[in-house]
């Protein structure tokens, strides 16, 4: 069955050959969806016929947001930690242990219900592709369980057994790394596409460059592709390691050396910026302009998690990127859609060109510029019948 979508005041395709600029924006456009794929895109006047029609009355249409970095499998609440930060406490990852304790005690159904609620919350705000990490179980059984549950909602699952050193291994980091790279990886790899590590020598809870390398190389040898929590709290070795090992993405990139920027500019590794974290930890934002001006591919994601940033809203992160990181509205939208797709090495999402998934987001506004121009207003919704959730 095919559907002709008309009355699109502005269509963002992210295909420069289709329209204006990098967003490939087409005014007064139409689009045909067939079998959950984009079958035709172009100016409204030249649209072909289809089985059914939807008229959007001049609203803007964008590719669904691609949220390439989240931690949604968890239990418990850390709002008190947020409150303490707003009064001056610093974030160092120490609170993760609280979430680990609560997650270990939760039943599968409790975790599943909460996970599905968050994914639903994201979809209701225009996110059609989501990556989900483990990292609050930190034992063989608990990490495998987290990934099994994550797999129920997305194909973009990430093994993050090396999130922090769990309480029972404190002072025995190398033994924990052996567990992560041995039995834990073996139990988790069947449910994961990616491996990740919190590479942060500045945190007493996370992993240094050497341990991070061991985790990433073991993951790669087990057939997983790589992504890295890099340079969040300090200009550590994470970005250089991500580039050297060919990771799809280095995430956070808050503290970068000139060599890091140069390495990213010459690499296929995407710099995924998570401005909700800086907002929610009251920290300086990453220097997005420096990265963009150097030619680095930049993505935006929420990092939705119970500690450093508990927003599920890509639109909020996009508004922060425009207001506080000086990305243009077009750069921010590209980063939140095509950038996220690049960070997940996906060619079928993050764009609305023929053959792409029909993940259409309708804005209750005439232009994508309104996403940042009207912060906090729920403008974005997934156009549902043509587009089922992207997996
Ligand atoms: O990406 N940096 C490490 N991990 C998460 C935070 C997890 C938490 O605080 O619960 C992050 O910010
Ligand atoms: Fe994270």
Briefly characterize the structure.
The chain is of the alpha/beta class. It has helices at residues 79-86, 96-105, 108-123, 140-151, 173-188, 209-221, 238-244, 258-265, 275-281, 288-293, 314-324, 329-343, 370-373; strands at residues 2-12, 25-34, 37-43, 52-63, 65-67, 127-130, 132-133, 157-162, 194-199, 225-230, 249-252, 270-273, 298-300, 360-363, 380-382.
Keyword list:
about 400 residues; alpha/beta; single chain; binds fe (iii) ion; 6-stranded mixed β-sheet; binds N-(iminomethyl)-L-glutamic acid; about 20% strand; 13 helices
How would you portray this structure in words?
- By secondary structure, the chain is an alpha/beta fold.
- The chain has 13 helices and 15 strands.
- A seven-stranded parallel beta sheet has the order 7-8-9-10-11-12-13. Strands 3-2-1-4-14-15 form a six-stranded mixed beta sheet, with no helix packed on it.
- Helix 5 (173-188) packs parallel to helix 6 (209-221).
- The protein is globular, with a radius of gyration of 20 Å.
- The mean pLDDT is 97.
- It binds N-(iminomethyl)-L-glutamic acid and fe (iii) ion.
- Residues 71, 93, 95-96, 99, 198, 229, 232, 277, 303, 305-308 line the site of N-(iminomethyl)-L-glutamic acid.
- N-(iminomethyl)-L-glutamic acid is lined by residues 71, 93, 95-96, 99, 198, 229, 232, 277, 303, 305-308.
Residue windows where pLDDT falls under 50 for at least 5 positions:
none
Q: How much is the average pLDDT? A: 97
Helix content: 25-40%
Question: Which value, in Å, is the CA radius of gyration?
Answer: 20 Å
Identify the bound ligands.
Answer: N-(iminomethyl)-L-glutamic acid, fe (iii) ion
Q: Describe the biggest sheet?
A: 7 strands, parallel
| Derived structural class | alpha/beta
């Amino acid at each position: 069955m095919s559907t002709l979508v008309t009355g699109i005041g502005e269509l963002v395709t992210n295909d420069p050959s289709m329209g204006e600029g990098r967003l490939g924006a087409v005014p007064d456009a139409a689009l045909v969806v067939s079998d959950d794929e984009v079958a035709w895109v172009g100016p409204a006047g030249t649209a072909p016929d289809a089985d059914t029609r939807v008229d959007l009355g001049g609203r803007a249409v964008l590719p669904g947001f691609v949220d390439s970095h989240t931690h949604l499998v968890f239990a418990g609440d850390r709002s008190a930690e947020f409150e303490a930060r707003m009064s001056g406490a610093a974030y160092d990852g120490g609170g993760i242990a609280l979430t680990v304790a609560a997650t270990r005690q939760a039943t599968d159904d409790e975790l599943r219900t909460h996970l599905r609620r968050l994914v639903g919350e994201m979809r209701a705000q225009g996110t059609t592709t989501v990556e989900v990490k483990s990292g609050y179980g930190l034992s063989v059984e608990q990490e495998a369980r987290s990934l099994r549950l994550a797999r129920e909602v997305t194909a973009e699952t990430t093994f993050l057994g090396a999130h922090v050193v769990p309480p029972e291994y404190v002072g025995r980091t190398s033994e924990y790394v052996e567990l992560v790279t041995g039995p834990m990886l073996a139990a988790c790899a069947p449910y994961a596409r990616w491996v990740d590590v919190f590479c942060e020598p500045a945190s007493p809870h996370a992993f240094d460059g050497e341990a991070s390398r061991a985790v990433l190389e073991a993951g790669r040898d087990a057939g997983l592709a790589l992504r890295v929590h890099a340079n969040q709290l300090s200009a550590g070795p994470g970005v250089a390691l991500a580039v050297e090992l060919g990771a799809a993405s280095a995430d956070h990139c808050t503290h970068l050396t000139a060599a890091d920027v140069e390495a990213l500019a010459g690499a296929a590794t995407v710099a995924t910026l998570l401005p909700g974290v800086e907002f929610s930890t009251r920290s300086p934002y990453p220097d997005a302009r420096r990265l963009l001006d150097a030619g680095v591919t930049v993505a935006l994601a929420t990092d939705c998690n119970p500690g450093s940033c508990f927003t599920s809203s890509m639109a909020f992160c996009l508004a922060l990127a425009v207001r506080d990181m000086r990305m243009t509205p077009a750069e921010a939208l590209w980063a939140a859609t095509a950038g996220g797709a690049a960070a997940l090495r996906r060619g079928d999402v993050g764009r609305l060109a023929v053959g792409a998934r029909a993940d259409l987001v309708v804005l209750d506004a005439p232009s994508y510029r309104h996403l940042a121009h009207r912060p906090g207003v729920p403008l974005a919704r997934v156009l549902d019948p043509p587009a089922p959730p992207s997996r």
